[in-house]
Design a protein that fits this description.
It is a single chain. By secondary structure, this protein is α+β, with helices and mostly antiparallel strands. It is built from eleven helices and 14 strands. β5 (66-74) and β6 (77-85) form a beta hairpin. It is a multi-pass membrane protein. It comes from Thermococcus waiotapuensis. The chain crosses the membrane at residues 132-155, 167-185, 231-253, 297-323, 343-371, 392-412.
């Protein structure tokens, strides 16, 4: 092990210690302050030429973007202390050294900026057949769900002699296309943001499921590290923003196709007594577009309106600021990894409490705690400041989270 030269951050005392850790807390023998690694002691017979070195091209890029001093080499990772950032463009730096087979991370350690250079990971290719098969399966499952919803909707219209379009196949297709359009646009937003920041990501994988809605949503897999906190916010917010831009007009059209029926019709709604909860955004759209009749009436949602409602719910669930959900990535940009882990645990416990009102929150709590146990490594660059524009974008995401919050998504009547 190389012997490190350490300097006390309080009194300036220096000494050589058998360690290569960047920071030794409370190790100063004079004042008890923290000791920071400032160099290495070269033993007799050892030369710097005997140590591994970065390729000259990568070394030149480091010098181009940073004024940095080498600290150590351990397990394939080159560590530098950054004295000054010459060019504040980490994404460009990362892209350029990746061409030579290396990645980088810029982190804070012991009150200073530390640059890590390490071999780039292998990025495996996609298997498009899996995505196509999942899309076809989800198309079929949502068509079936839409058909069932259409039959219940048409049955209620017939029972009360109400006007309305009655072709269950067309209505089922409209439901399926609406759901897939919202979910696909959501994931496409992520894909576009990833491409803009040179982050490798798959195309959407749709998840078929034989439930009331025919799907559990869609996901994309990020296959390379997120470079900056700016990129993390863009990737986290882009999906919900893109999806809600489709969900709002779909909901508006669906609400205009919906109709009011007497309360007694509740028993004929889809799901045999399972009803849809509401949120601020849905209530705003409903009040803006509909004029409810006087008396004891309730709104019978057209299947297209249900598809829009699903899009709003998906937006809310993805914006939960925990683990590696979209909202979790945004929150992680403003938090340390340790604080974010604690925040995730707190959110999981909060959802356990919320399961008193809807049992499904318990499953969501388990999911968040499970994926949160792996942590969220955050962006490679956690030193460069977050631009004001991305802080505003994060604020917009927080507002959207409040507007779409659905405390009780489903309830029994």
């Amino acid at each position: 092990m190389p012997r490190g030269i350490y300097e006390c951050v309080n009194c300036g005392h220096r000494e050589v210690i058998d360690s290569s850790e960047p920071l030794l807390e409370k190790a100063c023998p004079k004042c008890g302050g923290d000791m920071v690694l400032v160099g290495f002691s070269v033993e007799v017979g050892e030369t710097t030429a005997s140590r591994p070195a970065l390729p000259a091209e990568v070394e030149a890029k480091v010098r181009e973007f940073y004024s940095a001093e080498p600290l150590e080499f351990r397990e394939g990772v080159f560590t530098f202390e950054v004295r000054e950032i010459i060019k504040d463009d980490f994404e460009r730096f990362l892209s350029e050294i990746e061409g030579y087979g290396y990645w980088a991370a810029l982190k804070k350690s012991g009150g200073r900026a530390v640059l890590y250079i390490f071999p780039a990971g292998e990025i495996k290719g996609d298997n498009p057949r899996i995505g196509v098969l999942l899309f076809i399966a989800t198309l079929l499952s949502t068509l079936w769900a839409g058909y069932v919803l259409a039959l219940n909707y048409i049955g209620t219209l017939d029972e009360f002699g109400l006007p309305g379009y009655r072709n269950p196949y067309v209505i089922g297709l409209a439901f399926s296309m609406s759901v897939l359009g919202i979910l696909g646009t959501h994931e496409l937003g992520h894909k576009i943001a990833a491409s803009l920041h040179n982050v490798r990501a798959t195309f959407p994988y749709f998840i078929p499921f034989p439930n009331l809605l025919g799907t559990l949503g869609a996901v994309i897999r990020v296959k390379s590290p997120v470079p900056t906190r700016k990129a993390a916010i863009d990737l986290g917010v882009s999906g919900p923003l893109a999806g809600i831009m489709v969900a709002i007009p779909v909901t508006a059209v669906g609400l205009r196709l919906s109709t009011f029926v007497p309360v007694s019709a509740f028993q004929s709604l889809p799901g045999e007594g399972i009803y849809f909860g509401t949120n601020l955004l849905f209530e705003i759209l409903q009040r803006a577009l509909l004029n409810p009749p006087s008396g004891d009436y309730v709104l019978l949602l057209h299947p297209v309106a249900i598809a829009g409602w699903v899009g709003i719910l998906v937006t809310f669930l993805n914006l939960i600021p925990a683990a590696q959900l979209d909202g979790g990535h945004v929150a992680r940009a403003f938090m340390s990894e340790g604080l974010h882990r604690q925040f995730t645990w707190g959110m999981g416990l909060f959802l356990v409490i919320m399961s008193y009102f809807w049992a499904g929150w318990f499953l969501w709590a388990l999911l968040i705690l499970f994926i949160g146990s792996a942590g969220n490594p955050g962006a490679l660059d956690e030193v460069s400041p977050i631009p004001a524009s991305r802080k505003l974008l994060a604020l917009l995401a927080a507002i959207l989270f409040v507007l779409t919050a659905t405390p009780v998504p489903f309830y029994a009547g």
